Amino acid sequence: MTSSRDKYFKINLKMIITGAVVLLALYLIVTVLIFNANPVNIRVTTPIHSEYSVIDPEFKVESGIFSGSQWVYGNDIRVLTQGEEVFGTMQDDIALAEKSITKETYVFFGSNVATPMAQALADASERGVYTHFIADFIGSGDATSEQFDTMENAGVEVIRWRKPSWYQLSRLNHRTHRKLLVVDGKVGYTGGYNTADPWVSGPEQSQYKDYHFRITGPIVNHMQGMFSQNRVLASGGLLTGSRYYPVPDTTGTLAMQATSSNPMEGKMNVRKMLIYAIASADESIRMGTPYFFPDDGFLEALVDAANRNVNIQILTPAEETDKDYVRAASYTLWGDLLAAGIEMYEYQPVFYHAKMMIIDDYYVSIGSTNFDNRSFRINDEANINILDGEFGREMAAYFDDDLDKSVQITLEEWENRSTWQKAYGWFIAKVLGTYL
Fold first, then answer.
1. 28: nearest Cα among 204, 160, 124, 165
2. In angstroms, rounded to a whole number, what is the distance separating the alpha carbons of residues 341 and 410?
3. What spatial distance separates the first Cα and last Cα of the chain, rounded to whole Å?
4. What does the pLDDT read at residue 337?
5. Closest CA to 353 of 228, 179, 230
6. Between the CA of residue 243 and those of 97, 152, 344, what are the distances in Å?
7. Mind listing the pLDDT tens digit for each residue in 291-318?
8. CB-CB neighbours of 164 under 10 Å
9. How confident is the model at residue 274 (pLDDT cuts 50, 70, 90)?
10. Which end of the chain is less crowded, N or C, counting CB atoms within 10 A of the terminal residue's CB?
11. CATH, domain 57-435, list 1.10.10.10, 3.30.870.10, 3.30.750.24, 3.40.630.30
12. Which of 35-44, 257-266, 418-427 has the highest mean pLDDT?
């Protein structure tokens, strides 16, 4: 027969277990919904007024000082516009690697892109090339275990960036969105291309509209440094020596600057640099982005530039988008922009995934950064900025060609959206806007 003491003990034990479960649930809710979803405050909160234009020498000096990244001379760049060309050129360089390969990406999956890339990295490692690969854990969620095993079994250092764990839930929302590849410390790649099948054409799909860039010259050392930042955060290991940082060769005439953001660590240099460049615009600003939902300060910088008679064109996706709710929320921000004379466009043929800013056909910023809160305040990003009239005009021509395949949205059309579109966009913007 069970004694009253045993019953009392069982009841207390049940209450203790229940209490522990409740406390654990509260911990998870607080961590995920408050600490994890609450981005670091933006450092620059007041308007920036620049005394210089992007063509002035002083622009380089001042931007180099406050961004913590000096401009580097003697570089060259090649624009890549097709998936087969992007990944084929990457794999050609990887096949020629002799000393080191470092690669970092957000999205990684698919038999047409990720599998050949995994094999190329594995082959390089088996040749004795020091090979390191960082893939965001969330972004590579659709990758197969075989793809990772192929690399790891060949000796590639594979890091799944911020794999969820109970003791690091406060970092779950902070992903690496960077897209970097550095070969032998001499050749670098960045741009909008992830390492995944949607970036190549297939029987049942057209590839995303995007741009990627092959870069050579002294700036590649700085790209290597950006990769090393996140490797330190992930593993505690620092890349050193000529294997990773060779004495750089001059390969061209371009001035370039590498800017990176680690918002979780309090570093938001990409946003700072972009706002400063906007404040320095004299004639034109062209912006392309798959997700347009920046903060009020960024929007104010654009309106201020428009009020200085700077011609501004912003290109975003149309219905062909992978996140329709972001598009809906983005519409809620367009009113003041359109009223200020800023031209808003939507790219029609396929999903537009390009990320670029071109100012006065002279300053160009390319890389992984979207013009939204997630890129500015949450994700780790890496951009390369270029100052050169010839390259600026080349990228402006690509942008204008994309505009020809786009539809301009007027203020009247924006105002005449359906009640449902307005309500849906308002709801998403208010509930999730800080994290879009």
1. 165
2. 10
3. 61
4. 98
5. 179
6. 11, 21, 46
7. 999 999 999 999 999 999 999 999 999 9
8. 11
9. very high
10. N
11. 3.30.870.10
12. 418-427
Place of tokens 């969330």: 138
Contacts 24+ apart (CB under 8 A), 387-391: 387/54, 387/55, 387/59, 387/60, 387/71, 387/254, 387/255, 387/256, 387/257, 387/362, 387/363, 388/253, 388/254, 388/255, 388/362, 388/364, 389/361, 389/362, 391/77, 391/254, 391/364
Q: What angle do CA 173, 350, 401 make, to 5 degrees?
A: 110
Alpha-carbon gap, residue 114 to 416, rounded angstroms = 43
What are the start-end ranges of the H helices in 154-259?
219-235
Which residue carries 């995007």 as its tokens? 210
Is pTM beyond 0.70? Reply is: yes
In the chain, where the domains are located: 57-435
pLDDT of residue 329: 95
- Cβ atoms of 339 and 376 within 8 Å: the answer is no
Residue 301 in contact with residue 275, Cβ under 8 Å? yes
Cα–Cα distance measured from residue 139 to residue 47, given in angstroms and rounded to the nearest whole number:
34
Q: Pick the closest to residue 326 from 292, 368, 285 (CA basis).
A: 292
Amino acid of residue 62:
E
Of 48, 49, 79, which is closest to residue 388 (Cα–Cα)?
Answer: 79
Which two three-digit tokens encode residue 180? Answer: 């970097």
| C-beta atoms surrounding 253 within 10 Å | 13
Q: What confidence tens digit (pLDDT) does each residue in 205-235 have?
A: 678 999 999 999 999 999 999 999 999 988 8
Q: How far is CA 367 from the centre of its chain?
A: 7
Of 397, 309, 408, nearest to 358 by C-alpha is 397
Query: Cβ distance 280 to 52 under 8 Å?
Result: yes
Helix, strand, coil proportions of the chain in percent (round to 5)?
A: 45, 25, 30
Q: Tell me how far apart the alpha carbons of residues 290 and 354 are, in angstroms, rounded to a whole number.
A: 6
- Answer yes or no: are the C-beta atoms of 288 and 312 closer than 8 Å: no
Would you say how long the chain is, in residues? 436
Q: Tokens for 99, please give them.
A: 């000393």
Distance CA 20, CA 25 (A): 9
Cβ contact 166:136 at 8 Å: no
Residue 364 and residue 387: Cα distance in Å, rounded? 7
C-alpha Rg value of the chain to the nearest Å: 24
